[in-house]
């Protein structure tokens, strides 16, 4: 591609969603990925589309998450139509269990504010929980059901987005590392002109930085911290779980292929995404607490990924305050899969000069450091 309309740095779920949606809106798109497409955080995720299970107040972040969640049915259907890949979007909901005295306060206050806010949330007794999920710990005390929290198979999602982007004409360069941003100085303004990579120069007047926890290595603002999450999968026996199951300490995600994912850890260990015995031990303990039979199920896989987190734990979405034509789409932290459909839509709106359907002020790159300078 000679000079694309849009150059995207990062072939994770966010970069692919922007690329696909931009190409469908008529832009010539070049995507650059340092490794293989979708092999980092998006591959490691659990696929929960569960903003309500973790929300303690109604704020712009929860509204962003809920708006993106509401796009998922159509997003999945469009991906199926474009690629023939079913991303296993499931609407069974999430169950959040109280298993100890200390869990009660968190669950009760979540129930209270969401119920008062008119959000669909159900308070269930232990008997009701065990009737719908008989594999769970008989010592469960009570719990919450979030019918509007859903899930998707994140690995199929990546496969589908990759195929859809290619079909829509996106040019994807893998194993290509961006070394620096290229800028011009025009009439007292700094403007993006492309990127320098280990495979040569790519030019474009619009660049999106969507490189997850590697974004900060390409541009100094925002600083993005990798936060390791270790995961494991076991082979479920019957009856399979219907819901995603949470406690305050972990989660269980049932998959249609009969596997059951257990997660996770939250560790600041740099760019190390190996598993550790301590990480596995904590996941096993937390999953066994929710479902005692977890301990004897056959182990299928262990893995870990790096969540991209900025200091205030909010996504960074929008135009760079100092470099015209540079846009950020990073810092999704625990919600990259959930936020992918809406992030793609909003970034393409910004890039094409349309008014985004969501007020992005709370997520503006400018909030992180008013004195951002050109890199
Ligand atoms: N989204 C779940 C996690 O980051 O562990």
* Weakly predicted, low-confidence segments: 370-375
Radius of gyration using CA atoms only: 21 Å
Helix content: 25-40%
SS element count, helices:
10
Number of strands: 20
Return the domain count.
Answer: 2
Structural topology:
Layout: E1 6-9, H1 13-24, E2 29-32, H2 41-44, E3 48-49, H3 60-70, H4 72-83, E4 94-98, H5 104-116, E5 122-125, H6 126-132, E6 142-146, E7 150-151, H7 154-167, E8 171-173, E9 178-186, E10 189-197, E11 200-203, E12 207-209, H8 215-218, E13 225-235, E14 244-246, E15 251-254, E16 259-263, H9 277-290, E17 299-309, E18 316-319, E19 323-324, E20 326-330, H10 336-351
Parallel strand pairs: 1-2, 1-12, 2-8, 4-14, 10-19, 12-20
Antiparallel strand pairs: 3-7, 4-6, 5-6, 9-10, 10-11, 13-16, 13-17, 14-15, 15-16, 18-20
Helix pairs in contact: 1-7, 1-10, 3-10, 4-7
Q: How would you characterize the overall build of this protein?
A:
The two termini are 25 Å apart. The chain is 29% helix and 26% strand. The protein has an 8-stranded mixed beta sheet, with helices on both faces. The chain has a 6-stranded mixed beta sheet with strand order 8-2-1-12-20-18, covered by helices on one side. Strands 9, 10, 11 and 19 form a 4-stranded mixed beta sheet that branches. The protein is α/β, with parallel strands linked by helices and 375 residues long. α3 crosses α10 (336-351) and α4 (72-83) crosses α7 (154-167). It folds into 2 domains: 6-74 and 155-223 and 312-368, FAD/NAD(P)-binding domain (3-Layer(bba) Sandwich); 94-147 and 225-309, D-Amino Acid Oxidase, Chain A, domain 2. The chain is built from 10 helices and 20 strands. Residues 370-375 have low confidence and may be disordered. It has helices spanning 13-24, 41-44, 60-70, 72-83, 104-116, 126-132, 154-167, 215-218, 277-290, 336-351; strands at residues 6-9, 29-32, 48-49, 94-98, 122-125, 142-146, 150-151, 171-173, 178-186, 189-197, 200-203, 207-209, 225-235, 244-246, 251-254, 259-263, 299-309, 316-319, 323-324, 326-330. Bound molecules: glycine. Residues 46, 48, 229, 263-264, 307, 334 line the site of glycine.
